[in-house]
Amino acid sequence: MGTLIYADNAATTQLDKDALEAMLPFLNQEFGNASNQYSFARFPRKAIEEARLIISNCINARPDEIFFTSGGTESDNWAIKGIALKTQNKGKQIITSSIEHHAVLHSCSFLEEIGYKVIYLPVNSQGHASIDNLREAIGTNTSLVSLMLANNEIGTIQKIEELSKIANDRRVLFHSDAVQAVGHIPIDVNTLGVDLLSASAHKFNGPKGVGFLYLRKGTDLINWSSGGKQEFGRRSGTENVAGIVGMAVALKKNVDNLRANEIYLQRLSSLFFEKLTGSGIDFLVNGDNYRRLPGNINISIRNQDGEALMHRLDLKGIIVSTGSACSSGKLDISHVIKSIDVPREYALGTIRISIGKDNSIPDVLAIADAISSIILRGSM
Ligand SMILES: Cc1ncc(COP(=O)(O)O)c(C=O)c1O
Question: CB-based contacts of 18: which residues, under 8 Å, 6+ apart?
Fold first, then answer.
């Protein structure tokens, strides 16, 4: 295999070199347990609090509103189960959407199993939930609305400011899974009007296994774990110091370069589409053309098998994802692609190419070339 072209940055990203550098002391000589009182714990503890400040500044929050977790899945689980269980006296109804990540959807099914009612808002063909549908769905027993900021498959950026306003006006708490958005588009928790927001470091060139939950001051939810009282007593467990430090460095670096990265990725996407359209392949672009994550390309190619295409690209050293998979002999279309009603003859041929700041112009042209040669000439 020649050089690898990695174009699955929505799945995970490469660790930033400066983030790695900042992490190393805490994996080596500065291994002290940040929760201890002696001097050897001082440096790791200071590093955690500096990271909390840096991260809070990146999303216009207060440092004491940032709670470190093991990543996006934990943040989503904590937000949803934590609020639902804390507010069960108010009511047992949660509202979410049909295109959420499984970390949200499966947290909601857990709640359904223990007697909660969950309303799944539909989305339109671009992946937007409707403000009117949300307004109608909210009842006096609704305790939480959880709607994602940016979709991980099709890249659509929801109008969270408008959706959260409906919930805020009715005094219903609002959580947003911003795992795909943080570090990629500007985030201001006050402008967004959210009470809780989930993020994960490995999606923005930070390390894996670390993330955070933003929790607006004054919002109460059940503690995630009990024990040593770390994270203001809400999420006990010895801190992942290196991970937290690496996350802060990676996030700040991405946030400082948001606009430049966005312009660069838009250029790469346009070049990709020019090349693919020129090849004459019949495909649809999924998601919103304008309110879209930079670098997210999700296409459905007519009469193709997305999973087979993904494997054939893999053989050529190109890493992408698919929105359809052949499990136990039958072709499955992802819940997101189903929700936006992509016609079946296209839906089965869905692939997601998520390019990142480390990709180059030759990378995207090579991906478009590889897709067209596989489809038009059957080339391996
Ligand atoms: C939108 C969204 N939410 C949550 C997650 C889960 O994050 P993590 O991998 O950090 O558990 C992901 C990861 O793909 C995601 O894309």
Answer: 249, 250, 253
